[in-house]
Amino acid sequence: MPTGKGKAPDVFRYHYAIVSRIPNSFKDSSLKQKEPAKPIDLEKARQQHEEYVETLRKLGIDVLELPLDERHPDCVFVEDTAVVINGTALICRPGASSRLGEVAVIRQTLRKELGLKIVEVDNDKATIDGGDVLWTGKEIVVGLSGRTNQEGAQAIAKAFPEYATCMVRVEGALHLKSLMSMAGPELIAVSRSPAAQKVLKRVQEQVTYSYMILTVEEEEAANMLYANGMRVHLPDTTIPKSFPIIENKLDFQNRYAQDISELQKADGDLTSMSILIQKVKHPKNFSSGVSDEDLGDFPVVTL
Amino acid sequence: MADDSEKIPDSPGKEPADLDTTQQSVDQEEEKPKDQTPPPAEPSPKKEKAKKEKVKKEKEKSPKKAPTTRSSKMVACRVLLLDGTDQEIEVEKRAKGQVLFDKVCEAANLIEKDYFGISYRDATDTRYWLALDKKISKQMRSGPWVFAFEVKFYPPDPSQLTEDLTRYHLCLQVRNDILSGKLPCSFVTHALLGSYTVQSELGDYDPDEQGVKYIQDFRFAPNQTNELLEKIADLHKTHKGQTPAEAEMHFLENSKKLAMYGVDLHQARDSELVDITLGVCASGLLVYREKLRINRFAWPKILKLSYKRSNFYVKIRPGEFEQFENTIGFKCANHRLAKRLWKTCVEHHTFFRLKEPEPPNARMPLTFPGFGSRFRYSGRTQHQTRQAAALIDRPEPRFERAASKRLTTRSMDESEPYNTSENPDQSAIGYGHPDRANARTPSLAEDEAGQGGRLRPGEELGAPGYHPPGGQAYTDHVELKTTGVNLSQDGVAYYKRGDSIPPTTPKAMGEDLDDEDAKIKYGYDSRYGPGYENQDTLEMRRKGGHPDGYHYPGQQPDRQNRDLIQELKRRQEGGQGEGDDDDDRYDPSTEHLEKKRILITTTTTTSPAHGTSATNSSSSGSSRSSSENSIQLDVASNNLVEGVDDLHAQQDSITTESYVTAEMYTETTTTTAAGEGAGKMAFFHGAGGPGGESQEDHHGYKKTTTTVVMTTGDDSSMPPTVPTERVKYDPNAEHTTTSTTDVPLVKTQSRTVTYSSSGDGGRDLLPGELVSSQSHASRSQTVETTTYKTESDGVVETTIQRKITITSEGEELDHDKMLAEAIANVTSEYLPQDRTVQKIEIKTDTEEVGAD
């Protein structure tokens, strides 16, 4: 009997990332849920962004840096502009109208530079911020936030029909991924905050597969970047309470603390500043972390 | 009491095996040998192959030509195989589905055949599975015998299949699913799967090939482009060295992870009439709105599945912090589709979740051994088929792979209906065909419209039964009202947009998998099981005194019914009514079928040693599109009788047009205790009722029995579509027959014969308090026992009503015998003590669907 079972591909194995440099307009014109106590220090923000890019490179990712675009103050948060899974890129329709123009350059890069299959949202009513799309490696959870609506969720489900796609309402946060993120395969990091726990409950009700939960203290600590077996998280200066938890629970070797405090002033988080792309030239399997155990048979029972 | 009984179904090992029927098990025994050894008449594979070729040639000339009957006994079946070819197989006209299935599997040389099935399509192109334990002729009412051989249960892990041949057929099925849009994929996945298909069929990439010409004839995706072919060719190069079997394995290893792999889709609507899609698969039941999955019920999370009319109900195991079970209702376009969905669920659950099908023994209610059956999956489960496959001892059979090319031509032209014009519920989510969905027959559309409103439980709440003057009460609504009541009491929540959804633990598939989890009830609550009934019966006997004032009613109704039955039989023979409950196809435009029900009701009244009391009881009805032969025996006695159940369920079973009575016990399970309120509400106070009331003075007891005939209409406040006439029978009177007037699509006849010991036409109706009620249902029969308590002047009197409904739809049932047994049963089992028969009522409804 032949067996088609090879080693399960690592769905969080990323080869490329797209990032965008910070325009001057970011300082004053970027969208913020609330005004920061201290204004954004643009220089510091740029410095942190450069460090962020360096960190990505340390993970073994080729980073494509897009030139800054003054017309789009939020262009640094490229995550919201496209969802890339399994060699398919869905070009988003960001929920903030000021950001609609950001997608053009992203689309072009994804198609021309990376040769991905581009899918467009075919519903004018749909809005999607990529920050609301949580790809767990096995399925997709879409947060219905102020930026993403149900039509958008449908568009995502349609673009990635290989995966079960469900949606959860998100309140009290900009994006679903502001509250939780993948901290590893089958591992979701989420904060203890009531808003996050509420959404987590909804997620648990909806998802198909089971996940472990890493509970952290500060809300922003729950947004980590997991790629190529390594995690990027915030430093202890930003998340003093959660840092020991992360230190304790996650393998020291495989993590990097990255300060992005200036970008956080404009609601930025670690995942929001890049689009991660897996590019396998000749795949043997489509990208899915679903394992045989997941599909597994039920233990059969006798009545 | 209800609390106790609620627990029973959950506790392992206690669930009565209520399910298969004697009848079915007999069938199984008949059929089983054939499983292993093909019937002697079977053509050899060689011959079959030759025939196949011949058919193919014939087909080229007239592809649409349906097989014709060659002799009076043999019928030619055309079976569309997974590789797109046709096979013509002759079977006896009276053969069961198993025969055809075995022949097809034999010709395909398949041993692991339990994953497959034979399907047929009705006029609306809806796919149904041929029941293997039933005669084909009963399932194919109209149209040519054209079938398709398909995968019915998609193995979650194809690598565990034993033979490559089986996997090859699964591959063919998955490819068909991809092409039909059932199994949607993105471009990237189409390319990957396509490349394995090419490797499997053409072998290694030939470097001499230029471009994509060599795969141009393949069909890989619904809308394939040259870009896709290029990508496939590109990937094909990388599969060098893979054998066909290996390539197929890779194909399946990817396919099995696709979200829609093996998901059988059914269109439905939620309580707000928003279109949703229900998907049945190996792991449970999925709910989609367009492409998004909005809910998911793994099998362990489901307590019970049931359907009633066009509604389908899922009872959810309460979550950690929930007190009540939730029942979620969905609405299908019509009754048949609801039943189809329910059957699909029952079959999938049994196949994937159980070690073996529910055993066919020991399940009928004590009172009616040997009657009827309720649908259950009776084939092998996945567990069993794997065990059997482990014993396969033959070298891997050789077979040719050449399907995709043929698929190319076929799926584009002549086999179009098979591959592409999927009916709405087969097609991919979000590709819904609203036009088709709406293209129902007028009656069904009406039905839909009528029932649409009923999905809102609130409307029914507290609404009193409607009793129009003139002797007819319309009960559909009683039942619905009770539903409403139960909905609230039971925590039934219809699925609503924006509703908070009962949590399905994400881990549900892996956790909670203790034995009890597997026990989903299929519209049948186990606490109504034999054990329970036994107890009740015993208790009843213990408490009973000596027969007192006992009128043996057997003779009269028996004779009456014989006439009825014979008449019915004549009529049945006249029509081409075929099929039975489970295979009933409701297609008014093309079909002509008859359904019969016999309803026997016994009411036993008990009162304490002194005084007067009154009871009321009994409701029966004929629904608009169903028919009944009913006998009601109302028996009064001095017994305190206990029964457990509830009235609603019973009423449901009578008043609905649901042919399988087993489906009714949906929302009521927690209500027995919850309330007398519910009981009272449910109880039909037919104060203005027709001549079915009697008052009787009996050995110093005053008993009053009221019988109300309820006729179902389609809307809770509308008169019935088909008038049912009721005739009261008393010992001195003759029964009469009444034919109803024609209605657009349904012809119904109903007749009621009532025997009343009092012979008194004028009865009083006093409100009764429901003590308990109990119900057993089998395929063709429902037995219901209801106990009421009435209090008048401080005296409590108990009335027991026992109602037996025998239903057949063109089925060959010995109504005579069943009726006689039913009456005997009612009278002997329930009347040994001092109980008196108050009333016997026999009601016959005959219906011809689509007669005109």
Give a written overview of the molecule.
The complex is a heterodimer of chains A (303) and B (852). With 303 residues, chain A is α/β, with parallel strands linked by helices. Chain A has a single domain (8-283), classed as 5-stranded Propeller (L-arginine/glycine Amidinotransferase, Chain A), CATH 3.75.10.10. Chain A contains nine helices and 15 strands. Chain A has helices at residues 26-29, 42-58, 103-113, 150-159, 176-179, 194-206, 242-249, 261-264, 292-295, and strands at 16-20, 62-66, 82-85, 88-91, 117-120, 133-135, 140-144, 165-169, 180-184, 187-191, 212-216, 225-227, 230-233, 255-257, 275-277. In chain A, the strands form five sheets. A three-stranded mixed sheet of chain A has the order 2-1-15, with helices on both faces. The longest helix of chain A is centred in the first third of the chain and has 17 residues, at 42-58. The radius of gyration of chain A is 19 Å and the shape is globular. Chain A starts with 15 loop residues before the first strand and ends in an 8-residue tail after the last helix. In chain B, helix 6 crosses helix 9 and helix 7 (187-202) packs across helix 8 (226-236). In chain B, strands 14, 16, 20, 21, 22, 23 and 24 form a seven-stranded mixed sheet that branches. A five-stranded mixed sheet of chain B has the order 2-1-5-3-4, with helices on both faces. Chain B has a four-stranded antiparallel sheet with strand order 6-7-8-9. Helices cover 31% and strands 21% of the residues of chain B. Among the domains of chain B are: 74-256, Acyl-CoA Binding Protein; 268-361 and 372-389, PH-domain like (Roll), CATH 2.30.29.30; 769-848, no CATH class. With 852 residues, chain B is of the alpha+beta class. Chain B has 23 helices and 24 strands. The model of chain B is unreliable at 1-70, 362-373, 405-517, 524-561, 571-731, 733-750, 757-767 and 848-852 (pLDDT under 50). In chain B, a hairpin with a 2-residue loop joins strand 17 and strand 18 (701-706). Chains A and B meet through helix 4, strand 8, helix 6 and helix 9 of A and helix 7, helix 9 and strand 9 of B.
